[in-house]
Design brief:
This protein is of the alpha/beta class. The chain has eight helices and ten strands. It has two domains: about 150 residues, 3-Layer(aba) Sandwich (Alpha/beta knot); about 55 residues, tRNA(m1g37)methyltransferase, domain 2 (Trp Operon Repressor, Chain A, Orthogonal Bundle). The strands form three sheets. It has a five-stranded parallel beta sheet. Helix 3 runs parallel beside helix 5, helix 4 crosses helix 6 and helix 7 packs across helix 8. It is elongated and about 70 Å long. The chain starts with a strand and ends with a helix. It binds adenine.
C-alpha cells in the first residue's frame, strides 16, 4: 500500500512512523508512506497557505491554491489512483470497519489541515471524503491522520505476526476483547482464572466469548445496539 500525506507539519509524523509496527511495515515494504509539505506549494514570498474567511468570522482558512498544487504534484508521484481523505471533525466517524475498508485500498492520500478549516472548494474539487476520529476538535488533522494510518497499517497482511493476529481485537468481532492474562499465575493476590490454565481450548473459547459479551454489555452497550450482536 502507498500512503501519501499532505501536511504543513511533516516533522510531526517522524516519531510515530519510526517506531514499532509502523517502522517495521515500512522497512519490509508492506507500506510506503510519503509526506509532502503543503507550504512548499505556496506562491507568495511569505509562504502563505491560509487566509481570513470571506464573510468574516474567527480564524484562518486553508487556501485552495497551495493544496490543489500540492495534490496535483503528489498524485503524479505514483500511477496508482488514490482514495482522497480530508481530516476534519465534520467527517464520518472513523471506526474499525472503516480501518478495514481503507486497508483494502492500494493507495490513500490524506490531507491534513492545521487551521480552522479548509476552503470548501478543496473538498469539492478534489472529490475528497471527510473522516473524523471523534466528536472533538483537534488543532489540526495530523494526529488524526496518524491514528488512522496506525489502525489501517496494522491490519495489512504480514504486518502483525500470526500470534498477534488482529482478528480477536476489540471491535473486529463487534465486541470488546476478552480479558487477557500472562505470567505470573498469582500477582499481588490476584489469580489467573482457572479455566485459562485448564488446557481445554473449547471451554476457554466459550469463556472468552462470554467475557467479551459481558464486558461489552457493561462498558459499551452502544456497540451491541449498533451491531445487533447480542
Ligand atoms: N481535525 C480537527 N479535529 C479533527 C477530528 N476530530 N478528526 C479529524 N480531523 C480533525
Amino acid at each position: 500500500m502507498r500512503i501519501d500525506v499532505l501536511t504543513l507539519f511533516p516533522e510531526m509524523f517522524e516519531s510515530p512512523l519510526s517506531h514499532s509496527i509502523l517502522k517495521r511495515a515500512q522497512e519490509t515494504g508492506i507500506v510506503d508512506i510519503v509526506l509532502t509539505n503543503i507550504r512548499d506549494f505556496a506562491t507568495d514570498s511569505y509562504k502563505k497557505v491560509d487566509d481570513k474567511p470571506y464573510g468574516g468570522g474567527p480564524g484562518m482558512v486553508m487556501m485552495p491554491g497551495p493544496v490543489f498544487d500540492c495534490f496535483e504534484y503528489v498524485e503524479k508521484l505514483s500511477p496508482e489512483e488514490g482514495r482522497v481523505i480530508l481530516l476534519t471533525p465534520q467527517g464520518q466517524k472513523f471506526n474499525q470497519a472503516k480501518a478495514a475498508e481503507l486497508g483494502a485500498e492500494n493507495r490513500l492520500i490524506f490531507i491534513a489541515g492545521k487551521y480552522e478549516g479548509f476552503d470548501e472548494r478543496i473538498r469539492i474539487g478534489l472529490g475528497a471524503e471527510q473522516i473524523s476520529i471523534g466528536d472533538y476538535v483537534l488543532s489540526g488533522g495530523e494526529l488524526a491522520a496518524m491514528i488512522i494510518i496506525d489502525a489501517v497499517v496494522r491490519l495489512l497482511a504480514g504486518v502483525l505476526g500470526d500470534e498477534d493476529s488482529p482478528k480477536d481485537d476489540s471491535f473486529s468481532t463487534g465486541l470488546l476483547e476478552y480479558p487477557q492474562y500472562t505470567r505470573p499465575e498469582v500477582f499481588r493476590g490476584m489469580k489467573v482464572p482457572d479455566i485459562l490454565l485448564s488446557g481445554d481450548h473449547g471451554k476457554i473459547a466459550e469463556w472468552r466469548r462470554r467475557q467479551a459479551l459481558e464486558r461489552t454489555k457493561k462498558w459499551r452497550p452502544d456497540l451491541l445496539k449498533d451491531n445487533n450482536k447480542e
